[in-house]
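=== Structure Prediction Worksheet ===
Name of assembly: unnamed complex
Input type: mixed (protein and possibly other molecules)
Chain count: two
Listed entries:
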Amino acid sequence: MCRLFALTSKDPVSPMEAIKALNVMKEGHDGSGVGLLLRDLGGPFEEMKDAPILSGIFSEEGIRKLDFFMMEQGFMTKYKMSIKVPKIGMEGVPRRGLYLLRAYEYPDSWDGLNENEMATRLMMTRLKIREMGEEKRDMIVFSFWPDTIMIKELGDPLEIARYLGLDRKDLKARTIMAQGRQNTNYAINLYACHPFFIKGYSTMTNGENTAFIPIKDFLSTRDFPGYTGYESDSEVFAHILHYTISGLGLGLDAYKHVITPLQEKDLDTHPDAVFLKHLKKSCRQLIIDGPNCVIGSLPDNTVFMAQDRKKLRPGVVGGRPGMFAFSSEICGLDAVISDRDKSRDIQPMHLDTAIVGPDRQEVRICRQTEPLNLAL
Amino acid sequence: MSSNRIIKPSSLSLSDLPWQIHWKKDRCTLCGQCTAVCPVQAITLSVFRKRNLADSMNPSRLLKLSSRSDSINSSNNESASDKESLSNQINSVNPAERPLSPFETYYGIRQHTSIEEACIGCAMCSMVCPNDAIEPRRNPGTDRYRFHINQDGEPRKRGGRRNSTDSLLDRIKFIRISMLTDPALDAGRHEFELRTLLGRILPPKENMSRLRNNGWIPPVREIYPLIIGGMSFGALSPTMWEGLQMGVAYLNEELGMPVRISTGEGGCPPRLLRSRFMKYVILQIASGYFGWDEIIHAIPHMKEDPCAIEIKYGQGAKPGDGGLLMWHKVNKLIAAIRGVPQGVSLPSPPTHQTQYSIEESVAKMIISMSMAWGFRVPVYPKISASSTSLAVLNNLTRNDYASGLAIDGEDGGTGAAYSVSMDHMGHPIASCIRDNYLNLVRLGKQNEIPIFAGGGIGKNGNLAANAAALIMLGASGVQIGKYVMQAAAGCIGTETDRCNMCNTGVCPKGITSQDPRLYRRLNPEDVAQRIVDLFVSFDIELKKIVAPLGRSTSLPIGMSDALGIDDYQVAQRLNIKYVV
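=== Predicted Assembly ===
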C-alpha cells in the first residue's frame, strides 16, 4: 500500500516536511516513485497567482518542441524555476533532461475569455503537450495550471528530494500533497504516480480499484477530453471528483455519495432520499469497491480525506489551527505536527469526509447521513 | 420381428433406436410398474419363446429337458401313456424318431421398435422399478431413428435445448483474485449489495435536471440479477406455474430477495393479475398476443403494477420463429386464459403482424405499453441473439421509453419447436452480449439501457459461474428457464436427447403436461421449496465468486478485467484475458 501525506497550512511550508513524513512511513513504500503536488505557493510564485505554471520533465529535444509550441500558442515565459541535479546520477533514477517548472503569461488572444473557457483551454494545452510527447517520451507534463507545481520521479522520496534539491528556500507552498509509491499492478510509469490533477482538482489514493474498468468506461464516454490517461487505476478518483463538483454542480459532500452510496435502508431514512436514490442509480458506474482511502484537494485549496464503505485503508487527520495534515499513518503526522492536541486526531470512518477549508482553522466532518447542501 | 413380417424402409431394429432398454430377467418381479409409467408405451409385457437345445448324444438329458418342458406346458390331462411314448421316442435308436429340442416360454419386457413408440430414455421405468431391473441405455453408435422420425412429412418437433453439451461459459475463468495488494472479502460475513436495475436510467446531468424541473423520469426497478424467464402458462402445467409463483413470492416476502418472473407468452391467470403478487411479475407480450385482452381489461383492477412489460420478438431456442403450443395441450383452462378456442394448435407468427419496421415495432409498441400503465412500468423488448442485435440496440438507445434489452442465445430451452430450429438456428450468447455491451460503452450509454442475457445459462449445472461470467461481460442480469425446470421440478431432459417430450404433453414429471393425471405428480409446494433452494444457493455461490474479486458494494457489471480463458481466439473475440 502506498503512503500518503497532505499538508495544509496558513503559512507557506517547505515540501521537505511532507517528504519527512513519507520517510517516517518508509516501510510502506518501496522506492518505486514519489509524487508531489504544491499549491497556494509561497516564494517568488506568490506574486504571480494567476500565471499558469507548467510542470513536467523534458528532454532537450522535448524542450525545443515545447518552446516552439508555446510560442505558437502565444505563451511567454514569465518565470523559470530551474532544478539542478548533481552531475553524478542517482541509482535507480533515469537520467532526465530537465525538470521544468515554468510560469507563463497568458497569450494576448486569450484576453476577454471567461474563467471557464480559459480553464478548458489550459487543460487542452496540457493534453496537447502530453500527446506530442507520447511517441518519443521526450515530453512528460503533469500539470499546467495557475499556482500549481507538480513533481514526480522514480525512487525513494527522501533521496529524490535531496537529489532534486527540494529543500531550497524559494520552494514553499501552503497546500502540499505527497505520495510514496508502492508498486502494484501497473508498470512503473510517471503518469501512474499519484497525485492526479485535473483543472484544479487533485486526488491521491491508497488501495486498489477493483471497479476500475466500468468506471473508466463511464468516464471516457462522458464526452470530456480531460477524462483520459488512466495509467493508474486510481486516476479515476480525481476525475470522479471533477465530474461530481464541476460536471454535476454538486458539493464536496456529494463525492462520497457518488463513490460510496448508502444502502437502500439507510437511503430511505435520509432527508435527501429522493435525490440520492436518483444519484445512486444514474451514477451507478462510478461506485467504487476496493478498499480505498482518498485524499484530495479542490481549486479553492480545500483539502479532504474520504474512506470507502469497507474502511480497510488507514488514514488520520490532525493538527492545530493554522496547520493540518492528512496522513496514512499517525507517525507521519507526529513527524510534522508533533505539537498538536492528539486527542483531537480524527480517523474518518466509512461514512465520513474529513474537510479542512482554505482558512485552515479546523477539521470538519461531513457524514453521509446528514442532509446535503443542494442547490436544487 | 418375425421373418415373415414385411420390412419397410422405416422398420427399425433395437440397435437402430437412440435408446435401448436393458432389462434384467433375474431381478424383474413382473410387477408392471414400468410398463404402466412409460410415457410413450415403449415397453410392454411380452412372451418370449425359447428353445432349449438338446444334445442328442445324451438321451437322459433329453428326457430331463423334455420333462421340464412338460411341467411348464403340459396340461393335467396328459396320460401316462403319452409320457411313456415320449420316453420310448427318446430312447429310440433311430434318430429320425427322436423328438426335436423342446421349447420354453417366459414373460418379460419387450421394447417396441416403431417410430411412435421409440424409447425416449426418460428412465421413469428405472425410477418406479422396485428391483432396479430396468434402465434405458444410450445407443453407443448412431441411431437410424433420426432418419425416419419424419413420418407423413412432418419433421421432428420436441422440447428442450439445442443438443450440444458444449458450453463456452463453463470455460471462462475468474482470474483477477484479490490477494495481498487488496484483501479478498469474506463471502460469508461481509455485507453484499448485489441488486441490479431494470429500467431506463437517465445520464446523471439529465436525471438531476428533470428532478429539478419535475420532468418525467423513467421508472426503474431494483431487482435480483437472476430472473425466471418466460415459460408460458400452457407450456407449463398449472402445478408448475403455481409452484413458481409461490417460490417467487416466498423469496420476496420472507427472504427479501427481489426475484422476478416473466409470464411467458401465454397470458396470466386473472386472479394473479388482480393480486398483490403482480409486482413480482413481468408480463410478456409476444406475437400471439395471448391473453392480452384479459390483461388490458384487468388494468383498472390491478392492485399493483407489474414489475415490467417484456415484448417478445424472438427467443433463443427457435430464433426467427414464434411460440408453439400443440392442440393436445390447449385444454379448457389454457384456452380460457389465452382467449383462444380449445383443442387448436397455436403456432405464433414469427413477427408481430401489426408492425412492419424496427422503428415502428420498437417505438410504437414500447410507447403504447408504457402509456397503458401510465408510464410507471418499464417496458423492454426480448430478442433472439443475432448478428443483427446491434441494430435493435442502437434503435433502442434513441427511444427514451426503452427500458432495456433481453437477449436470448442459441442454447435457450423451449416447450415446443422444430428440432432443426433448435439445433441449427441461433447465435451464441457470449459474443452477442459482449458486442452489445461494448457498443453501449462506445456510446457512453452502458448505464442507461440494461442488457439481460438468457439461453442455456447453467445448462451443465454451473449456474452461478455462467451468470457471473455474463455479468462481467456486460449483462445487467440473467434469465433462466430450463434450468429452473431441471433444478426445481425434476425435469429429466438433457442435451443428449433424453426425454424432451414437452411438446407432446406427456411429461412424465408433470412439468409441461396439461393432463391432470400427470401434473398431479408434481407438488407445487415442493417446487416452491426447490425454487427457494435454487436462489439461496445461487446467492451464496455468486458471493463466493465476487468476494475473491474484491467486489461487494455493487454488482460487477462489465468488470471484464476479471475474466480469462485458455483460448486465444475466444479471448480476442470477447476482449478478455488469454490465460493458460
